[in-house]
Amino acid sequence: MNCRSRIIFFLIACCMAFTNVWAQSNKEINSLKSQRAKLQKKITQNEGMLKSLKKDVRSQLSNLNVLNGQISTQKKYIDAISADVNALDGKITVLKTQLDTLKSELEQRKKHYRRAMLYLYRNRNTQNKLMFIFSADNFTQMLRRLRYVREYARYQRVQGELVKRKQEQVDAKHTEVIKTRDQKTVLLHEGINEQSKLEGQHAERTKIVNGLQKKQRQVQSAIKADKKRYSSLNSKIDALIQQQILAEKKRREEARKRELERQKKIAEQKAREEAKRKQLAAAQGGKENNSDRQESKSRKEKPVYTPKQQAEDMKVFKMEEADKALSHDFAANKGRLPMPISGGYMITQHYGVHNVDGLSGVQLDNKGINITGKSGAQARAIFDGEVSAIFSLGGFSNVIVRHGSYISVYCNLSSVSVGKGQKVRTKQTLGSVARDASGNCTLHFQLRRETSKLNPEAWLAK
User: Fold this and answer.
1) How many separate domains does the chain show?
2) d(CA 229, CA 434)
3) Among 39, 47, 379, 418, which is least packed by CB within 10 angstroms?
4) Could you tell me the CA-to-CA distances from 121 to 114, 116, 126 in Å, in that order?
């Protein structure tokens, strides 16, 4: 491999390395931009959430939940801006490295080009070239020298083009560095503004908390009432799910017993047929007729498995297979299931035991999550399934949908638009979400796998 080939190979390798780094950096930045855009959209939607002007404790607690949700989203947005800034810092570092490399390559190109031009200047006389060609020892050498002169001239033209292109690359990369720095500056200013907005939300929360702290007895009473209501709701849900599980187990057990009985009768029938065959082989004439009568009598005494029973059992077994398939499909969509509420939303209470932000000593144990949406929000199915129960409690309607072995529960509905036993599709409307004390619509949503409670946030798409 000659010198020029080595240089070309080195340049190609450098370009490929930079391209890979550059592609990876751009992919990361685009992903962060997409996440930031989603959070910005959610913030815009959340800003439209109503805040009650009432001063009663329940209204102010609802306002506090809404505000805590907005603060949580705002923090995520500021973190996304910081991640974008860090990504841009990394991009600027890569760009600077690429720019320095391009400048170094450009300097080398210019150096080679100057040296070549100097050589051409010194040997610019046409006679010198002709003397070089015609001073060859033989005709073959003369042809080689002629080709050399032509190739060297072409090489110099190519070098001039390479210098020009390299200069253009340097200029373009320099422009890109400036553009990326400008993007970073804009993001930094946006981060400062969003941080100021967050501080304003914290101040507003402090004001609400100070007002609630003056009404500690009423706060505790309201939280106690909510805990009691949710305890009754959870007991009702647990009881209904347990009933469904027991009924399903009983149906399957009966089907299994009938299947065992069917297999037993089939075996007995085969045994009788085998006995009859042997009797036919051993007996003649009247004995054969007598054997037939005895066989007919035996069949009457022990009736075989009826087609109707067989059809019922096959229906149960098909249901089992369908439930297994549905459960598998549901599990495969973990983290991608749609939100169970239409329109803009925010999660105002999370799953499990947690403290209420801003209120000291106030702890809640949520078996699901509370999702607050705007006025007119609808509850919708998170996956294909069947409505297994609809019940009322405390003036609100509640819907349970079974997805194989998984169960989703939609509570605090003002009206229901489906019926028990109805098949529903993903995102199908189940009913209207009732308003809370702040005037917004808050859906209480739970997710189970039979009797086991699951954290819905791990299953829903953000």
Assistant:
1) 2
2) 15
3) 47
4) 10, 9, 11
Tokens of 67: 């505000």
Report H helices in 55-125.
57-122
Cα separation, 344 vs 71, in Å, equals 16
173 in any annotated domain: yes
Structure tokens given for 24: 């990876």
Q: What band does 222 get if pLDDT is binned at 50, 70 and 90?
A: confident
| DSSP track, 271-284 | HHHHHHHHHHHH--
Q: What is the pLDDT of residue 16?
A: 53
Rounded-to-integer distance, Cα 229 and Cα 238, Å: 14
Residue 222 domain flag: no
pLDDT at position 209 = 74
pLDDT score, position 183: 79
| 8 Å CB contact between 330 and 404 | yes
Tell me the residue type at 335. G
Residues 461, 382 contacting (CB under 8 angstroms): no
CA distances from 128 to 121, 123, 323 (A): 12, 7, 93
Distance CA 110, CA 170 (A): 13
Question: Region 125-131: what's the mean pLDDT?
Answer: 57
Q: Considering the entire predicted model, what is its pTM?
A: 0.58
Side chain identity, residue 380: R
Asked if residue 396 belongs to a domain, the reply is: yes
Give burial (CB, 10 Å; 0-12/13-18/19+) of 57.
buried
For the beta carbon of residue 41, count every other beta carbon within 10 angstroms.
11
Closest CA to 442 of 54, 143, 31, 49: 49
Could you give the C-alpha distances from 358 to 215, 223, 366, in angstroms and in order?
Answer: 14, 15, 18
Q: Which domain holds residue 400?
A: 345-458
Residues 6+ apart with CB under 8 A from 358: 64, 68, 205, 206, 208, 209
Query: Which tokens go with 264?
Result: 């037993």
- Tell whether 158 is covered by a domain: yes
Question: What gap in Å lies between CA 297 and CA 299, rounded to an integer?
Answer: 5
Domain co-membership, 349 together with 210: no
Token match 């002709």: residue?
130
Confidence of residue 50 (pLDDT cuts 50, 70, 90): very low
* Among 396, 416, 405, residue whose Cα is nearest residue 232: 396
d(CA 168, CA 44): 43
Of 157, 183, 214, the position where a domain reaches its end is 214
Predicted confidence band at 271 (pLDDT cuts at 50, 70, 90)?
confident
